[in-house]
Amino acid sequence: MHQHEITEILNRPASRELLARDLARLAYVAKDGTPRSIPIAIAWNGAQIIMCTAKNAPKLHSLRHNPAVALTIDTEVHPPKILLMRGRAELDTVEGIPAEYLQMNGSYEMTAAQRVEWEAEVRSLYDGMVRIVVTPTWVKLIDFETTLPSAVEELIRERAERRPA
Predict the structure, then answer these.
(1) Which of 40, 97, 127, 164 is least surrounded by CB atoms within 10 angstroms?
(2) Where are the alpha helices (DSSP H) in 20-80?
(3) What pLDDT was estimated at residue 149?
(4) E-assigned strands of 42-156?
């Protein structure tokens, strides 16, 4: 997929809405060779998805061995909006708490006092974190209005071909 195609899809209103969400599912191949899909907090910086994790998280060994990942960001309504992405995870160990981690947890419903308490707890727990940075190399938006899953598009074409003229 060419970069201009990726950019066009990511700039659509439905994609921007999904990229503003706090949670995605990250799929990767685990150390034992089996697939994993985990919910993870995200932040979009306009070009990359940023995720943060503990320096001792088991997924880091797997991502170092095989950095190929897929992400799904979707809604919980019908019809759903779904943004699918693929890319390679780049790992960046940082001291302290990355700004993205604090940003991506910013829309959870917390009172101001709860937010202060949460941030103090985070700062006391982590002396550093690992930023997982994914630049999309392939994307697909499924909104069930202008785009459909490819299998459904194929069935619609086949049905049209079967119908008499």
Answers:
(1) 164
(2) 58-65
(3) 87
(4) 43-44, 49-54, 68-74, 82-95, 128-142
Contact 86, 137 (CB under 8 A): yes
Both tokens of 30, joined, read 């685990």
Position 49 scores a pLDDT of 97
- 3-class DSSP state for residue 85? strand
Structure tokens at 120: 């103090």
User: What's the distance, CA 90 to chain centroid?
Assistant: 14
Residue 163 pLDDT: 84
C-alpha distances (whole Å) from 97 to each of 76, 81, 131 are: 30, 31, 10
Residue type, position 119, single letter: E
For the chain, what percentages of helix, strand and coil (3-state, to nearest 5) are there? 35, 35, 30
Rounded to an integer, what is the distance from CA 68 to the centroid of its chain?
A: 13
Kindly state the helix (H) or strand (E) to which residue 159 belongs, with its residue range.
helix 150-162
Q: How would you classify the pairing of strands 82-95 and 68-74?
A: antiparallel
What does the pLDDT look like over 10-32, one tens digit per residue? 999 999 999 999 899 999 999 99
The first and second tokens of residue 28, run together, are 């990767």
Q: What residues are paired with 159 via a beta bridge?
A: none
